Amino acid sequence: MSTTDTIPRSTSTAHVPVVIVGAGQAGLSVSWYLGRAGIDHLVVESHTPTHAWADKRWDNFTLVTPNWHCRLPGYSYTGDDPDGFMTRDEVVEWLDGWLATFDVPIRTRTTVTRLKRTATGFLLTLESAGGSEEITCDQAIIATGGYPLPVLPPYAPALDSAVAQIHSEEYFNPEQLDDGAVLVVGSGQSGTQIAEDLHLAGREVHLAIGNAPRVARFYRGRDCMTWLADMGVYDTPAQQYPGGRAAQEKTNHYVTGRDGGRDVDLRTFAAQGMKLYGHLTSGKDAVLTFAPTLTESLDAADAVYNSICADIDRYIDANDVAAPPASRYEPVWQPPADPTTLDLLDAGITTIIWAIGYRPDYRWLEVSAFDGGGRPIQTRGVTEVPGLSFIGLPWMHTWGSGRFLGIDHDARHIADTVVAALGDTRLRLASGE
């Protein structure tokens, strides 16, 4: 991977036909195709290409998707465990291997602080250790991720200062935390896996859960995500996906790839001593208040679990696939009551880990391309603003968008659109060309 440390300065603003903002796997995938097409472009990255993986995941992190899902332009997982789950460090090593296969015109440790529409394209302001500079481009591709800013509740500052508070992206291992019990807030993939990490380390864990669904890790002899891929679920366009926008807005199903992969069953954790609560609604000083939703949330997550298994059953029957018998999850624990309050100090809780998600931040984009919720208005990543595209967004085109499995297809489309807009020959996307 080549690195462009500086842009030649002159009396006029430097111009690059295409600028990609963000060097995660999505932005770099578009760069791969543009480089293949001979398109002059620049990738601008505020950190380094693997920063999000190397520096923002906890020590025992593993992928929740099977290794065979890991496909990027010109590069796929070829290890000896396609149905396994790479650890954090293995993902970084795999990405480094991909980056070694092609050259990227990239500026690292450089932040785009402003992108403004002009009469002929875009004007970008770049900030780095070397100072501020401006460049222009005809096409701008935003690859900064859908939700870069960690969310904390508005009442967090009102909680007792004796209890430490961190966001899930700041958690790395149990040893970094003060002795005592830990409250994890949020039951998405990060929240449940961090709660498990602490639980397995012997820490006393309290977990406030929301409405996240869950899925079986393995069912009828195969990984559930392998079944779903065969069923075409990850390739279904967002417009055709059952449940529409409401389904797309739901938190991802919780499951884990740890130790070869297994279900995350919060009821089992509770039977082993983990304390569960419903949706956390407010807090002041040392007292937190919860909605009485624990039983409802557990039942709803299990219903989704069983519904997905039933969908797989129907696929197996319709296609006469040989597989072990069907089964159904039955609860192994029931809450005696739905707790509605918790005194942090009385419970011996010394740390709160907020795992309630992230929010978009496009304040630096001075373009009219967003809805009332601050989300890009786009079709397969392409906006109504001439020359402005996005890549790497959840549900940008399919459920696979934003995942390793769907990045290549999305990147091809964006690169093809850019090449066509620049008036060049369309990308030849056939394999091996």
From TrEMBL:
<dbReference type="InterPro" id="IPR036188">
    <property type="entry name" value="FAD/NAD-bd_sf"/>
</dbReference>
<dbReference type="GO" id="GO:0050660">
    <property type="term" value="F:flavin adenine dinucleotide binding"/>
</dbReference>
<keyword id="KW-0560">Oxidoreductase</keyword>
<dbReference type="Pfam" id="PF13738">
    <property type="entry name" value="Pyr_redox_3"/>
</dbReference>
<protein>
    <submittedName>
        <fullName>MSMEG_0569 family flavin-dependent oxidoreductase</fullName>
    </submittedName>
</protein>
<dbReference type="InterPro" id="IPR024000">
    <property type="entry name" value="CHP04046_FMN-dependent"/>
</dbReference>
<dbReference type="InterPro" id="IPR050982">
    <property type="entry name" value="Auxin_biosynth/cation_transpt"/>
</dbReference>
<dbReference type="GO" id="GO:0004497">
    <property type="term" value="F:monooxygenase activity"/>
</dbReference>
